[in-house]
Amino acid sequence: MKRRSALQTLAVATTIVVLLGSTPGAALTPSLPAVVFSTSDVAASATDWDWNAKLDGKLLVWERWIGPGHTDYAIYVKNLDTGVTRSIGAGDGFQQSNPDVSGDLVVYQDNSTGNWNVKVYNWATDNSMNVSATINDEIDPRVDGNIIMWKDSTTGYLWYRDYNQPMVASTLINSALDNSHGHDVDNGRIIWTNPDFRDLRVAMVYPPLITGQMASFGPQPNDIEVHGDRIVSSFFVTTNDNVMLFDFRSRALSTLANTTGNEYYPSVFHNTFAYVAPGTVGEDITYIRPGHLNSTLGNTEQDQRPSVYGHRIAWDRNTGADWDVVLGTGASTLQARTYGANRYATAAAASVAYFGAGSSVFAQLDNVVLCTGENFPDALSAAPFARAVQSPLLLTRRDSIPAETLAEITRLAPTKIYIIGGTAAISTAVENQLKATYTTERIAGVDRYDTSAKIALRMEEIVGEDGVYRGFFARGDTFPDALALGPVAAAAQGPILLVKTDSVPAPIASAVNTLDITYGYIAGDTTAVSASTASALNTLIATNGALGPCLRVAGANRYETAAAVVNVGLSSRWVDLDTLGIATGASFPDALAGGAALGYYGSPLLLTSGTSLSAATNNFLVAHEYEIGRVEVFGGSNVVSSAVNDAIAAKIK
Fold first, then answer.
1. Which of 1, 89, 298, 348 has most Cβ atoms within 10 angstroms of its Cβ?
2. Does residue 51 contact residue 326 with C-beta atoms inside 8 Å?
């Protein structure tokens, strides 16, 4: 069996970032009115203090100090979909505090053993269990997907557990030193600051395994929150607190709020933000959505600690007598359409939407994956590989690079361009044109199956041998099942391995053996991947020590199969519904590039007919209407009609 390797500590020169910069979206002059929010009190007891609210999907959590004496602390969880509220620890005489939430999981600290330990509660099972319970005090837990992190306040070090691994163990972040201050986790990245250096640091739990300093500042970052590549923090600059935005890839620092008053407690969801700002009376919540005037939420009281998810904001309100939890719901949901004049422009637009420009502090993350836009076979396995090298997927013609693709490569300034497929897919002339400016690497086999195997093997070389032990299998002579697999496999750190309907090609069998695949997933029913092929795959992974057969994930058609794939990704916590991508299931290019971008962010992709919302996709939207933070439709109205786009928007609560 493979063993997890230690995190790679990356030695980087200290980068001093000057606290200057424009407001994000400054080029987009607000032309729309401020988003209007309807608000309601979620918890407003006359004797209890309800505060420290956190919001993720359908679950809203907060901390309650019970009764006039406030000697008993408990965690409360409300399901916004069903309206059901549950308590954790109410009346036990102990203290549960500092909650965080991701999907069905709620983490918190608990002192029922005499010191602070970290626990996790699962809404689906209605049970709690220990995450870390040592003789030291473990505090300030954070959770995202399968990763739970916390601080050992006795030593000052940061720890995490990755429940995505077959054998879960607490792992010390070696570069956290003994003076970490403020931390958060999202999409496999743990972000924190060290006041000795006044910096931002990162530990990438998911391969490539990197830890190091991203940037240092004059003032100390506080109130850190991260979502995707965006990190928000408050800085005390000269005389007051300002809210700043830091981009993970480019290390660009820009100003969100910089007035003569204090702005702090920032929260971020994709490209929307909320923070505390001075109000006419007391302090209010300011909300930023690109293209809109800023919204102000609050009244004459003190409004604090916003938490943003989708078009909702939860926050704490100090009434003067106690603390209450308030929920605001925006009048419009978050939905975007990413497209260009053609498939090459759409792929470039997806890259612009999801990937920052310029070189980052970690040069090995500055890459581009280039596939042919004229046929699908070589590109089907590219989405997980793009996640492994932390890069967008762009499309090219065989014999010439489209202007849109070339412009996007120039914007990204990659360290390396990975060319997927042989010269029959992307010509030597195109490769030579790129070589004149960039380092290139071609990954190709004698056919689509051999190329798929070589991509998987190269993926393991990049992320390390302990990073690849899942295999996702799909039919290689058509595209829909592999397209749906792309983002889920990427988030699960598993390659897509193409098979024939009635046999496992020799290069694939060899790759399964070399990679030591012990968990297998087959997309499609027996008409796509036959029972005999599944049996052959089961034999291969059993030889590697698999505890069970491959899981077949299938529906009656491509749309049902895509929904089934996403549900497996959600139940395994490889992906979440912060963003849900939707593309046509009738052709491959938009879903290919969009799926790679979604895989980078740990978000899934559904397929639909371009002229009517497919039943399976509709049913998925209804089932998860309170969990979906935002929707991204890939492709113009000629491939996903305006009627379908509107039908999607109508399903999100």
1. 348
2. no
Q: Which residue has the tokens 């979206």?
A: 25
Q: Find out whether 557 and 615 touch, Cβ atoms under 8 Å.
A: no
For residue 468, the one-letter residue type is V
**For residue 207, is pLDDT > 80?**
no
| CA R_g for the chain | 24
For the chain, the residue count is 653
189, 248 Cβ separation under 8 angstroms: yes
For residues 524 and 559, is the Cβ–Cβ distance under 8 A?
A: no
The pLDDT tens digits of the residues spanning 500-536 come to 999 999 999 999 999 999 999 999 999 999 999 999 9
Could you give the CA distance from residue 624 to residue 630 in angstroms, rounded to a whole number? 12
> Residue 135: is its pLDDT beyond 90?
yes
Q: For Cα atoms 315, 297, 50, give the angle at the middle one, nearest 5 degrees.
A: 25
Q: 407 by DSSP, 3-state: which?
A: helix
Of 555, 476, 543, 477, the C-alpha closest to 516 is 543
- What average pLDDT does the segment 335-358 reach? 94
Q: Assess contact for 138 and 154: CB atoms under 8 A.
A: no
Distance CA(439)–CA(476), nearest Å, equals 29
Look at residues 529, 626, 525, 624 and name the one whose alpha carbon lies nearest to residue 567.
624
Sequence-distant (≥ 6) Cβ neighbours of residue 239 within 8 angstroms: none
627 contact partners, CB below 8 Å, separation of at least 6: 57, 58, 81, 103, 577
Distance CA 379, CA 371 (A): 6
Cα(582)–Cα(604) distance, integer angstroms: 9
Estimate to the nearest angstrom the gap between the alpha carbon of 245 and the chain centroid.
18
Residue 259 has pLDDT above 90, yes or no: no
Q: Is 489 exposed, middle or buried (0-12, 13-18, 19+ CB in 10 A)?
A: buried
Return d(Cα 381, Cα 452) in angstroms, integer.
6
Q: How far apart are CA 285 and CA 306, in angstroms?
A: 7
Three-state SS for 351-385 is: HHHHCCCCCCCCHHHCEEEEEECCCCHHHHHHHHH
- From CA 309, how far away is CA 54, in angstroms rounded? 9
Half-sphere exposure (Cβ direction) of 106: Cα atoms closer than 13 Å: 34
Nearest alpha-carbon partner for 538 in 466, 452, 467, 473: 473
Q: Could you write out the DSSP letters of every residue in 243-301? A: EEEEETTT--EEEEE-SSS--EEEEEETTEEEEEEE-SSSEEEEEE-TTBPPEEE--SS
